[in-house]
Design brief:
It comes from Sphingomonas populi. This protein is α+β, with helices and mostly antiparallel strands. The protein is built from three helices and five strands.
Length: about 140
Amino acid sequence: MTVPDRFKGAVFLPVGIVMLIAAGFVAKSTHEFVQHSQLAAGLVIAESYGPHHVEIRFRTTKGKVVTYHQNGDVTLRAGEVVMVRYDPRDPARDPCVDQFSAIWGTVGFLGLMGSVFAVIGAALLRPVGLRAGRWNRTA
């Protein structure tokens, strides 16, 4: 095994593990948000930088009007009506379009990237003979 492979493995594996742990924390937080959030109809009022970065306005059940920017993970056009999830205690704090990718996209990204980094890191840390399928073979 070369020193660069060990170094790469020693970097990739912990980074992957940290990303997987972060995915777990974000998943827990997202699950709690979904459980306690309320739904409201919202209107896409502008496309800030195209259909993936839009401005949405909605009215809470208490009548408060909230406008926020929805970034990435969704494709929306001005004039579309969408359902928005929000925290009833603080509606302006992190409202989110009620679409799977918008709600769970960060968890999926962190989980996927963490898995890839961890597998590559573990593979780079394995002994060379094991990688080649020749671990302690004798003739």
